[in-house]
Sequence to fold (933 residues):
Amino acid sequence: MTRIKLLFSALITMTLFYLLQFPQQNLAPFPMGKFLNPFSGFWHNDTGGDEILSSRTLTGLKNSVIVQWDDRRVPHVFAQNDHDLYFTQGYLTARDRLWQMDFITRAAAGRIAEVVPGSLEYDRYRRRVGMIYAAENALKMMLADSVSRAALEAYTLGVNAWVEALDGKDFPLEFKILNYRPELWTPLKSALLLKYMAWELSGFSEELMMTRTRLALGDSLTEALFFRPPLLMEPVIPAGTPWPFQPLPVPDKPEADFFQLPLNAALPFEPDPANGSNNWAVSGSKTRSGYPILCSDPHLGLRLPSIWYEMQLVSPTVNAYGVTLPGTPTVIIGFNREVAWGQTNAGTDVLDWYEVEFKEDNPWEYRYGDAWLPAQQRIERIAVRGGGTVVDTIPITQHGLVVYRQHEKAFKEGIPTGTALRWAAHDPSNELRTFLLLNRARNYDDFVEALSYYDCPGQNFVFASAGGDIAMHHNGKFPLRWPRQGRYISDGRDPAYQWQGWIPREQLPKTRNPARGFVASANQNPAAADYPYYMDGKYASFERGARINERLEAMQRITPEDMMQLQNDNLNLHARTALPRMLAVLEKQDLSLFESRNLQVLQEWNYMNHRDSIAPIIWDRWWDNFQQLVWEDECYSEPYGRLLFPRRDVTVDLVLNDSASSFFDIRSTADTRETFSDLLLLSFQKTDQDLTQAYGTFGEGWRWGKSRGTDIPHMAKIPGLGRMGLDTSGDSMIVNATKKRHGPSWRMVVALGPEVKAWGIYPGGQSGNPGSKYYDDFVDSWVNGKYYELLYLKSPGDSHPRLVGKSILQGGAQP
Amino acid sequence: MKILILLLAMLMLHLLTPFWWWVILLPLAYGFLAAKKGWRAFIAGMCSAGLLWFAMSAVALLTRSETILAKVNVMVKLPGESYLIILAATIIAMLCGGFGALTGFLLREATRSEARSA
Fold:
C-alpha cells in the first residue's frame, strides 16, 4: 500500500518538477519555476533599477567620469578623455538596454537558434546573406583605424564592466523569459549592429519580381508602367541644380540582353516596405532667429525597447547630444554646439542578384566568362539550443555569396535561388569613423570629410551649422550602372555585368545653401533626370517630399514650434491630388444610402489624416480597392502569378491625366469595357462592405485613430510588453508618417545659434526594463505630437531644475 | 514550529542560491528525515513553501514590482488583477512543498518496510 502511495506521490512531485523546470510550449514557453521564484525571478525586474546609478569604481576607467541625470533618465556624460567617454557610453547603455543589444546582434549574426528553438532556418538565412561576413569585413577596417578602434574597444570594455558584475536575479527580464544568460560584448557585435541597420535600410530587392513582370508584360508595357517619368516627383536635389563635373564613363550595356527567371523563382513576393524618413534644414534667411534650424525624423519599425537611446557625450574633444544605437559608440543623429545632422534613407539600389551557373559534376565550380572558377567556401557553424551544431558552407563567387542553391527553398520569399548576392555592405567600410567625426564637426568642411568614410546604407545626410550653412548630401557608395542595370536579375556568367566602379563621392547629388533657403529629403528620387548618372532604387512616392517643400517654400520667419508643427503635419497630399477628380466622377453615379453617406464624409473632408476623422479610413480603403481593380488584371499572368504593381504616383497620374486609359478595362470581362467611372463605383461599393465588416457600423470604430491606430510591439513580440492600440494620426505618405507598426522613431528639431537649443522625442523610454517607469514613458507624449526640450549641458557643474541626480564613476586599477 | 523551521531553512537557501526547487527538495528531506505522519508532512511542506513564496511575492507587489506584475499578468494570459500571479506562485509552492514532503515521508516508510521484511 505504501508503495502505491509512494508511486503516486512521487509521480506528482516529479511531474511538478518537470513542468516547472522546463519551458512548456503551450502552457508557458519559459521555465516557470525559475521565472516565478520570488527570490530571483521576474519580480526583481522592478522599479529598483530606476534609481540614480550609485557612484562606484570601475576597472578600466582612466579618470573619474561625472554623469548628470535628467528627469527623463537621459545620461549626460562628462569624461576627461575619449576612452572614458565611450567606456561610459557602453556601461550605461548596457545598464539600460543589455537584452536588446544582445538579441539584435544575435538576430543580425544568425545566432537566434542558440536561444530560441526552431530558428535554424532564420539563422541560416542571416548567415547566407553574409551578415557575419559583412561585419567581419567592416571590423577589419574599423580596427585598422586607430581612432575608431579606440572607441570600439573602450565601448566594449564598458559594456563588459556592466555584464561581468551582473547577478542572475538582475538579468533583464527577457533573459529570464527566454532562459539564457547574457554574454560578453565584442567589437564584432558593434559591427554586426551596423550591418543589421544596413540590411534594414538597403536589404531589399525587386529584381525577381521585376524580371517576372518584364517576362509577363513585355518590354514596352514594363517601361510604360514602371519607368514612367515621375511627373509629380520633386527630387531631393531639385532639377536645375548644376553638376559642375565631368562624369566618369559608365560601362556599356552588354549586347546580349540577359533576362530570364531562375528556375525556382515562382514564389509570391511582397517587397519590404521601405523605411521612410524626413529631414530638412532651413537657412537663417527663413528663420526668426536668423540662424538655421535642422529637423530630423527617421521612420522605422516601431518596437519596445526603442531602437534609440538618448545621450549627451562630453569629453575635451566633443560635446554631442542626440540618439545613439545601443551597441555602437557615438551619437548617430544629433547636434553639438556648432552643427546638427540627420539622415533619411537613400533608397538607391546597392544590392544585385546574379544568376550563377555551377558545373554539373562539381557544385563548387561556376562559369565566369569562358572559364570555370572555383568558388570560395565560407563555413558557418550554427549552434542550436539543445541540438549541437549545424555546419553550413556558403559558396562565394566573383559576384558575392550564393544565398540559396537552385534546389533549395529560400527562407524569405523574393530571394531568387541559384543566384549570388552582390551587396555594397559586404565591402569593407568604416561608418563608425563618420559618426566619430560628425560628433566633432564644426563646419561644412568637417561634415564633408566625415561623409567621405560613409559607404552603406546610403543616406540623405542633412546638415546645418551655426555658421549659417545648410546642406543635403545623397551619400554612400553607389555603383556605376548603365540604365536599368540591376533592375532585373543579372547574368553571373558574363563579367560585363559586374559592378565596374563607383560614382565618385564628390559627384553624388548634393546641394549647399540653395537659393530657395532650405534643403529637404523624404526618401524620394535623389535627383532629376538632368543628373548625369543612372540611379534607381526603392524611392518613395512624391507626396511627403512635395508637401514638405510646399510648406517650407511658403513659410517665413520660421520658429522651432513651426517646425514641430510641420513634423506633425497630417495633410494627405495623395488625397488632395487625386480625390477631387475621383469625387467629381463618382458623384454622378447612383449610390446607396450608406455609400452616399460615405461620399458626403469625403466631400466634407479637409484632407487631414487626423485621428478623430472618419474620412481617412474611407479614402484609404477606397484607394486600395480602386488600385487593386485597376492593376490586378494587368499585373497577373500565368504561369508567373501576381506581378509587381506600378508605383502609386503612376496610378495618380492616370487618374488625373488619362481617365480614358485602357488600363481601366477589366480584362476578364471580355464583352464589356469598364471605364474609370465604373471602377470608381465598384471599388467604392466594396469599400463600404469592407469597412462595415472590419469595423462594425459607421461611427467610432471607423475613426482613423481607432480603425488604423498604432501598435508598438515588444522586440521579441512578447505579449504584454508592448503598447498596443495607440490613438494616432498621420499615415505613410504623410509628413507625420505614423503607420500601424511603423513611424517616426526620433523627432528632432535643432535651432542653431550662439546657444544651440533642441527638442526631441522617440516612441519609447530610456529603460529597456519592462518593469521600469522609464520603459515607455515617452509614448503618450509621442502619440500627441509633443516634444521634450533637450538639456544641452556645457559643464558637469551646470545646474538645471530638470537635473535629478549625479553619479561619479572612479577609475580603478588598470586591467 | 516545524513549519517555521522549514520556512526559515528554505528562506536561507533561497537567499544564498538561485534555485527555485528548494520548495520541493527541502520538504522532501524533511519528510524523509523527520516527519511522523504522512498528512502532517504534507501540511507542513505545503504551508511552509506556500507561506514563504506568498510572503515574498506580496512584498514584491507592495514595494516596487507593480508595473512588472501587471505586464507579466498579460504575458501569461491571466485575467484581471495582478494579485492572481501571486496566487499562482503561492499555489505552485504549496503543491511543490506538500507533495515533496509527502514523497519524502513515503519514501522512508517504503525503505523501512523493506528493511523490516528483509
